[in-house]
Amino acid sequence: MDRPVGEKSSGAPTIVEVDLGNRSYPTDIGSGLLDQPELLQKHVHGKKVIVVTNTTIAPLYLDKVVEALTKGNPAVSVEYVILPDGEKFKDMDTLMKVFDKAIESRLDRRFTFVALGGGVIGDMCGFAAASFLHGVNFIQIPTTVMAQVDSSVGGKTGINHPLGKNLIGAFYQPQCVLIDTDTLDTLPDRELASGLAEVIKYGLIRDAEFFEWQEKNMEKLIARNPNALAYAIKRSCENKAEVVSLDEKESGLRATLNLGHTFGHAIETGFGYGQCLHGEAVATGTVMAVDMSYRLGWIDSSIVKRVDDILPRAKLPTASPETMTVEMFKSVMALDKKVADGLLRLILLKGPLGNCVFTGEYDRKALDDTLSAFCKS
Amino acid sequence: MDRPVGEKSSGAPTIVEVDLGNRSYPTDIGSGLLDQPELLQKHVHGKKVIVVTNTTIAPLYLDKVVEALTKGNPAVSVEYVILPDGEKFKDMDTLMKVFDKAIESRLDRRFTFVALGGGVIGDMCGFAAASFLHGVNFIQIPTTVMAQVDSSVGGKTGINHPLGKNLIGAFYQPQCVLIDTDTLDTLPDRELASGLAEVIKYGLIRDAEFFEWQEKNMEKLIARNPNALAYAIKRSCENKAEVVSLDEKESGLRATLNLGHTFGHAIETGFGYGQCLHGEAVATGTVMAVDMSYRLGWIDSSIVKRVDDILPRAKLPTASPETMTVEMFKSVMALDKKVADGLLRLILLKGPLGNCVFTGEYDRKALDDTLSAFCKS
C-alpha cells in the first residue's frame, strides 16, 4: 500500500492498465474521481452520451455523472436511460430498452455509452455498446465492490437467458473504467460482503500474499476503511487485468477466475436469481470447490480451515441453501460454459495456497461426495 | 476467367482468402461442393453442430448438408432450427429461437453453428454465434447470389430493429464460407436479379474492368450460365475480401461497399421490409447516388448512361417506388450509421468509372435535387 490504512486517498487516481494491444485501457481507482471531470471527458467520443443506470443508483449519482460529463464541455449532450434494478432484469427485454433509447436519440457511431451501476448495468450496457451499430464507445463507472473488482474488468458483457446466466453476450472492451471509491458509501452491507467473495477468490487462485493481507485486514474491509477498500480493489483489478491480458477470450487461464462459480451459478439458478447475491453463491461455491480439492488430496487441511475461517469474517455464507439438491446442482452444471465435449471442467485448488488448476481430469467420486456433503437430498 | 463461359465447373473449389490476421478464413466457390464432405468437416469444431436455416431452404438442402456434415464422421451429431423465411423475421424474437435451441441442445463452447440460407439466415446465425457463450464456431453456406457475393463475406452479423435495418449486431468472422453454386438452381429470378445489384456495385466503386465484363455478359448471368455466375461470384468475393481486409471494422474504406445503400435502406424502410428486395432497393439507390454524383459534377454523363443501361438488363428497377416522399428519405437517412456528429456521409462516384468517395463534404442542394427528382412529393 502507498498510504497507511485509515487515511482517505484523494487527488490523482491510481491507474491499473489492462494490456490488450490496441484495445488496452486504463482503470482509474480513487476517492473523489467523479469530481474531476477531465478523467471522464478525455474518454468521450463524439458529442452525445447516453448514461445507462438503474432506479437505485440514478437518485444517488446520476446528477454527479452528468455534471462530470458536461462541466466546461457545453458541446456534449447527455441523455440517460434508467432501468429497473436487479439481476432478474438482466434480460433481452430490458436490453431492448437501451437500444430503443439509443435509436430514439438518433445516435450515430460517434457517441458514448456510460454504464453507471453494478455488474448488471455494466454487463447490459457493455453488450448494448458491443451490439449497437456493430460497436460503439463505452465507459464503465462501477458502483459496487463486485463490479469494481470483477465484472467491470476484462470486457465480458452480456445478459441472462431464462435457462442460465450470462449465456448471451460478447467480449467487448471499454474505453476506460472509472472507480470512484466514494460510491461505496451508499452500498448496502450485504452487497459489500458479496463483492468481497471475489476479492478472496483472487487470493486463493493466484495471490497468497493478498490472501494473507485479507486475513489481517478483513475487519477493516467490513468496516469500510477507505484505504483498505482502495487497496483491495486495486490489487484485485491488478490480478484480473493480468489474467485477462494473458487470455482475453478465456481459452484457459481466464477460466480460473471462476473458482466457486460453477457451484455458485447452480445455486443462483436453483435458488432463483435475486434470492441470494452473486458473491454469496460464489462464497458457498468456493467452499465446495475447496472441499472437493481436499477430497482429491490436492490441498492440505490448513487451506480448508483458512477458507472456512475468512468467509464468515467477510459476512459470507459457507453452506448451500437448504432447498438445493444434488440433482439441481447436476442439471445446471451440465449447461456450464466450461463443459467441453460433454465433460465438466472445474477450477480446483492444487498445491500451496495461491495455486489452482482448470481441469476435467478428476475423480467423479470426489464431485459426487462434495455434492452429497452440501445437500440434504 | 479460368474456363470458357458455358462449361460447368466441378471438382476442387476456387478459394478466395479473406485476410484478417488470426481471424482469416477461406471462401470456397464451385459446383458440387456440398457433395465433398471434407470441405465442411475440416472446419467443424467439437462433436455437435446446429444448422440454422429457413422454411424455404430446409426442404431443398438441409438433408444434403446434414449428410455432408456426418458422412464418414459418426462422432458428430447434427441438430437444426428452421426459422420462418423473410427479412421481417430478422428480429430479436426469431434470434431468441436460435438461442433457445442451442441451450436446449446443451451445447458447450466447442460446437459449430452452420448458417444455411440467404443473407437473413447468415446475419442472424452469425450474430447468434457471436453472442452465444461469448462466441462459438461458425460456418456459412450462402444459397442466394446476394449472400454469396455480399453478406456472407466480411463478418457483419446482426438483426433489425423496428426502427431501422441492421442496427443491432457484431463483427464476427466465420471459420469458412462454402459457396456451392448449384444451390442457385432453385433461386427465384427476382432473387437472382437482386444479388446482381451488389455485383454491379463492385464494378462501379472499384473495378471498372469487372463492370465492362458485366456489360458484355449480363444476359449470360440472367440466363444462369454456371461459369458466368461462378466468375461473377468469385470476382465479387475478391473485391469484398480485399476491402474488408483493409478495413474490417468499417472506419472508412469499407463504407464504400454501401454505394446506393443509404438511399436503398430508406426505400426498404419506407416501403416496408419484404415489399421490395434488398438488391432492388440498392439498384434504385445506386441510380440516385449516380444522379447526385453527376449533379455535383463529379462524373461525366457516360457513366450515368451506362448505369441506366445495365440495371434494366439485370432486371433491376431504376425508379423509386411511387409512395416514397422526400420526407421519408430524409427521416430514415438521418438514422443512418454513416451519420457522424449529425452529418450524413454518402458514397458517391467521382472520376473515371471504378472510382468513388465516402464523404460528408458535398453541396446539400445536390442531395435535395436528387431526392426531388426521384419523389413525386
UniProtKB/TrEMBL annotation, chains A, B:
One of its GO terms (biological process) is aromatic amino acid family biosynthetic process. Pathway: Metabolic intermediate biosynthesis; chorismate biosynthesis; chorismate from D-erythrose 4-phosphate and phosphoenolpyruvate: step 2/7. Its cofactor is a divalent metal cation; NAD(+); Co(2+). Residues 195-339 form the 3-dehydroquinate synthase C-terminal domain. It is an enzyme of class 4 (lyase). It catalyses: 7-phospho-2-dehydro-3-deoxy-D-arabino-heptonate = 3-dehydroquinate + phosphate. InterPro entries: Dehydroquinate_synthase, DHQ_synth_AroB, DHQ_synth_fam, DHQS/DOIS_N, DHQS_C. The keyword Transmembrane helix applies. GO terms for molecular function: 3-dehydroquinate synthase activity; metal ion binding; nucleotide binding. It holds the Pfam family DHQS_C. Its EC number is 4.2.3.4. GO terms for cellular component: chloroplast. Its main location: cytoplasm. The chain crosses the membrane at residues 111-133. Gene3D superfamilies: 3.40.50.1970, Dehydroquinate synthase-like - alpha domain. It comes from the Eukaryota. It is found in: Cytoplasm; Plastid, Chloroplast. Residues 81-193 form the 3-dehydroquinate synthase N-terminal domain. Keywords: Amino-acid biosynthesis, Aromatic amino acid biosynthesis, Cobalt, Cytoplasm, Lyase, Membrane, Metal-binding, NAD, Nucleotide-binding, Transmembrane, Transmembrane helix, Zinc. This is 3-dehydroquinate synthase. The lineage of its organism: Eukaryota, Viridiplantae, Streptophyta, Embryophyta, Tracheophyta.
